[in-house]
Each structure stands twice: as C-alpha cells, then as structure tokens.
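Working notes for the structural subgroup meeting. M.R. asked for a predicted model of this chain before we commit to crystallization trials. I am recording the input and output together here so anyone reviewing the notebook later can reproduce the run.

Input as submitted:
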Amino acid sequence: MSVLAISDLSLAIRADGEEFPILNGVNLEIEPGEIHGLAGESGSGKTITGLTVMGLEPRNSTVTGVVEVNGISVLDKSKTALNSIRGSVVGMIFQDPSTSLHPMLNIERQLTDHTRKHLKLGKKEAIAKAVEALGRVGIEDPKNALGRYPHEFSGGQRQRIAIASALACEPKLLIADEVTTALDVTVQAGILRLIRSLADEIGLAVLFVSHDLGVVSALTDQVSVMQNGAIVESGSRFDVFQNPQHGYTKALLASLPGAKGGLERREDLYCLDLMRDL
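Returned structure, recorded in token form:
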C-alpha cells in the first residue's frame, strides 16, 4: 500500500467573490522508503500540495479529490482528527527551522510534548525518546542539548532538530519543504544524507519539495515536475532528467549550468559534488 496516494487533487482559493485555481488534478503516489521529489519554480503549487496533505490548506479554499496517508483519508477529517494524524502519521519540516521551532521553549519541551500526547509516554520515556531522536539526526551530546534553546544552535543543527521533532512520533510520511534552501552547501549535503539514510534505514516515505533541480537529482528516487498547479511530468529521476518529455521540464533542465535541455550522462545527475556518495 502506498504511504501517500493523491488522486485528482484540485484546490481553488475564494477571494472577492471569485475562485482562483491553485492546484489542478494532481496525482501522486509514494511507497515506503521512497523519496519523491516535487520540483518546479516558485508558485507552481509545490508547497500548497504538501500543506494540503497535512490538512493545512487555506481556510478560504475549496478542495476536491482524494488524499490518503497510510490508508487514511485526509480531506474529510475534522480538525480534531487531523490533529491526531499530524505528527503521528505524517510529519512536516519547513525551509526555515527558526520559524518552526519555538524560540522560548527549550528543546526538551519541543521534542516531548507531542510524543506524550500521541504516544501516551510518561515524562521519562518521552525524554529518553527525545535523546534517541536527537542522536539519530546527528546532534552531539543529545542529553545536554535538551536543556538548550533554538538560538544556541547553528542553522544546520536547528534543521536537524526540526527533523528529529517531525520524526519523534514515528510517522510513515515526511514532507520536507525546501529544507536545505537556507543552508550553505556543506551543511545542505549533511541534511540530504540524513534524509536519504532515514528513508533507507527505517522505510520512511518522503515528499521532498524543492525548486533546486541539483538537489532533487542527487537525492530522490522518483520525480514529479509541477507547473501552474499541475504535474506535467513524472517518473524515475533518471528518466525525467536524462530524457525529459515535457517542454517545461526541458526548460528547467536547460537552466542548469552546462545542461542543454537534459542531463546526458547518468553521473551528471549528481549535480552537487558533495552528494556523489549517495
């Protein structure tokens, strides 16, 4: 069974008595352990697709279609039901961890509140799980890290903590929305390796949203290209990047340094030297 199954998803936002289409018939599936890249320029509908999977679409919107996460239909759920799904079944990390981590709460509080709620853990169990989660994402001295605050960590460390928080309740699906955009290239490579290892080791399904085709080509298994709220091309990363069929995909690839509408060699898919060992 697919961890994420999206069928004919459309979304329109109501404003001034009119409806403006944002998503148009999106279809997408992700299997356990698969990293699926959702690529396209800014405004193409990538982020709103991820937010809709989380049940976080704008209030003034009309949504049709089917979104199922681990067999659970999302679009027809109440706010209470959605709150029980977020974190426990699907987690999300955002571009800027400074906005997703509360600046006034220490890391222990931010990593234990939802595990105590969703997993019904006692305080000691929740702390032990938080230490385990921080260790898994490569935070040094995780026990002492629990007492610190977000501003005491670097940007890359904060993003690792955000990943630990998103995975603390062991969701089946992780939505990663432009998670490396604000990081320098060496830190970026470490975060991408971490996401790849989580998919491989624990079977985590990942919807990886990015406008950076270099990152998408280095990390993902399958790729869907979005334009104007619709997926215009989808397939394995090798098929999409080596033999693009849609004009928009060809134009995106042509914008890469040294590319002319497609990446001719398999090794050219690894556009970041630091990611070659993936």
